[in-house]
Design brief:
Layout: H1 3-9, E1 12-18, H2 25-34, H3 44-49, H4 56-66, H5 73-89, E2 92-99, H6 101-105, H7 111-129, E3 132-140, H8 145-155, E4 164-168, H9 180-188, E5 192-197, H10 203-213, E6 217-220, H11 228-236, E7 241-243, H12 245-250, H13 262-267, E8 272-274, H14 279-282, H15 286-296, H16 302-314, H17 320-326
Helix pairs in contact: 1-15, 5-7, 8-9
The structure holds 6-chloro-9H-purine (ES4) and zinc ion (ZN).
């Protein structure tokens, strides 16, 4: 089909991208060497071989170990700039980048260092690539709500450098309700709020993210299909679901792309779009997600392509003025 070539060039937004998940093995080894950090794998090839995951947790263990090579602002800048170049090559005009402050502060890296580096990468990409970029720090849900509240407090001096907060990491056993007060505090600061829900966790966690946290978008959300009342609610309220097909296959949410529920989500009239999640770990950036989905899923055609791309721009937290230049 000629569709993928057209899709590649069309303007689009990426709304579910963990910047630490864009750290390619080559850069990881370069930073490890420069910072005198010993990785658990001898080289790029053996590290890549370890990227065979059985579930979310088996990925997270390797992903947090990989992030340990990030020490200086220049390290964060290099990672961010590398992602932005890949994004621009895929026709991305707008990206909202997740990062995990606690992964770094727990290792003794100052939040100011993390932000200095990421913002330097962002400024360069805005200037040299014309991208529109913003940052969304996420709370780690395997840690306590008290730690999330401390993180939010640490972010207060950087309020103007972020547009929202999210919730990520191990989903099962950590329902959204656990973070109700942290999210209420974030909303009181005027921040946008999103949360991972219904990736490995049940549809009830999607309800809880909406009702207990007040989120504006659901990250993943693919398990909503298990609850018809929830599907009706998501459709009526036009709540965006930031779907990540290659991630879902790598983490065994679906056995293969041919079995992914994306066509059904679209048929149900839901506000879905494609995202790469952790592209360095899951086998491809946004363009690759689009290509592989349109190859594997014959139910997808031009109509669905248009909706996915339009939804991505519409569901973004960009200003209406910016959205109008893209849509
Ligand atoms: C993540 Cl795929 C996914 N799910 C939950 N938390 C995450 N952090 C980075 N990638
Ligand atoms: Zn994610």
């Amino acid at each position: 089909s000629a569709l993928p070539a057209l899709l590649q060039a069309a303007p689009k937004a990426e709304l579910h991208l963990h910047i630490e998940g864009s750290l390619e093995p080559e850069l990881m080894f370069e930073l490890a060497q420069r910072n005198h950090i010993q990785l658990s794998y001898p080289d790029v090839a053996s590290l890549r071989q370890a990227y065979a995951f059985s579930n979310l947790q088996s990925f997270l263990d390797i992903y947090y170990a990989g992030a340990s090579v990030l020490i200086t602002a220049a390290d964060f800048e290099a990672m961010c700039w590398a992602y932005c170049q890949r994004a621009a090559a895929d026709g991305i005009v707008r990206a909202e980048l997740f990062f995990d402050p606690q992964t770094h502060t727990e290792r003794g890296i100052a939040l100011a260092t993390v932000l200095e580096g990421l913002l330097a990468g962002i400024k360069r990409a805005e200037r040299e690539l014309g991208l529109s970029l913003d940052l969304i720090p996420c709370f780690l849900r395997h840690l306590s709500e008290a730690e999330a509240l401390q993180t939010l407090q640490a972010l207060e001096p950087f309020r103007e450098q972020i547009i929202g907060v999210g919730l990520d990491s191990s989903e099962r056993g950590h329902p959204p309700l656990k973070f109700a007060r942290a999210f209420a505090a974030a909303r009181a600061m005027g921040l946008h709020v999103v949360a991972h829900a219904g990736e490995e966790g049940p549809a009830a966690y999607i309800w809880s993210a909406l009702e207990d946290l007040g989120v504006e978008r659901i990250d993943h959300g693919v398990r909503c299909l298990e609850d018809p009342d929830l599907v009706a609610h998501l459709r009526q309220q036009r709540i965006p679901l930031t779907v990540c097909p290659l991630s879902n296959v790598k983490l065994r949410v679906f056995d293969k792309l041919q079995e992914h529920c994306l066509p059904r989500l679209l048929d149900e009239g839901l506000m879905v779009m494609l995202n790469s999640d952790d592209p360095a770990y899951f086998g491809g950036y946004l363009g690759e997600n689009l290509r592989q989905c349109f190859d594997a899923l014959p139910q997808l055609g031009a109509e669905q392509a248009y909706r996915l791309l339009r939804n991505s721009l519409e569901a973004s937290f960009a200003t209406d003025a910016d959205k109008h230049t893209w849509i």
